[in-house]
Amino acid sequence: MIHETLDTKTGPLITPEAVYGKHEKICDVCVITFSIKVIEWALQHLEHAQAAAIGCCNGDRPIYLTEWRGKKIAFYMSLISAPGAAACLEEALCLTGCRDYIVFGSCGTLDSRLTDGKMIIPTRAYRDEGLSYHYIAPSDYVEMENWKKAAAFLEEKKVPYVTGATWTTDAIYRETSGKAERLRGEGCIAVEMELAGMQAVCAYHGLTLRAFLFASDCLGEEGWYNELLGSEREWDMQVRCFLLALDLALGYGEDK
């Protein structure tokens, strides 16, 4: 059983440093997006330089460095899914030295009555993926350790938000109505593909992860419907969230 395979007694056979070598720290904080539209916007509107690249046989993923209101911030576009996002995060840590990560993106709402017109701040993530079980002890949920910092930030920015658990799954086409109903009953308000894995990686390495999402489609009690997914409105929302993430990287919502 995958839940019984965690090995904390021996080290990994391969590390990012074995692939990329050791690198100097370039900044403290890194913003992660899953949207190519965000990257296109950033490259057009922000002063930037490519600092490194996450290598992949289906295409490299550049890591860029920009200065936002006087602070150096790294950003990159992650692979989708918990394994993909976790591998990118491991390699970004090696290549940038950043120990503070901010991730944002779209998700499916499980209850549009709660999430309409609001950002979603995940408080914990249901571990319906395999990656997290290789990093931390088995449990149904992983706690999103820094959700209160994200909430304080949106509060300070006067951005409406709702908090709740998310459902992290690898199987986008096996999100069944029965499982959605059960997890909705446990307090899950959204479904996504990465957070349980990313939080597990951060917990393992002692990194900070702050996350916020917005709903682009709905897996409600009456079935699935698409409201924003793939539309110009979604791209606009992605860019809006990127700008919020850059401000969050400055330390808003935290004690100074």
Outline the structure in words.
The chain is α/β, with parallel strands linked by helices and 256 residues long. It is built from eight helices and eleven strands. Strands 1, 2, 3, 4, 5, 6, 7, 8, 9, 10 and 11 form an eleven-stranded mixed sheet that branches. Helix 3 runs parallel beside helix 7 (195-205). The longest helix has 18 residues, at 232-249. The termini are far apart.
Compact summary:
This protein is of the alpha/beta class and 256 residues long. The protein is built from eight helices and eleven strands.
Characteristics:
256 residues, 32% strand, alpha/beta, eleven-stranded mixed β-sheet
Record the SSE blueprint.
Elements: H1 16-20, E1 29-33, H2 36-45, E2 48-54, E3 61-68, E4 71-77, H3 82-96, E5 100-109, H4 112-115, E6 119-128, E7 141-143, H5 147-157, E8 161-169, H6 177-185, E9 188-192, H7 195-205, E10 208-220, E11 223-226, H8 232-249
Parallel strand pairs: 1-4, 1-5, 5-10, 6-8, 8-9
Antiparallel strand pairs: 2-3, 3-4, 5-9, 6-7, 10-11
Helix pairs in contact: 3-7
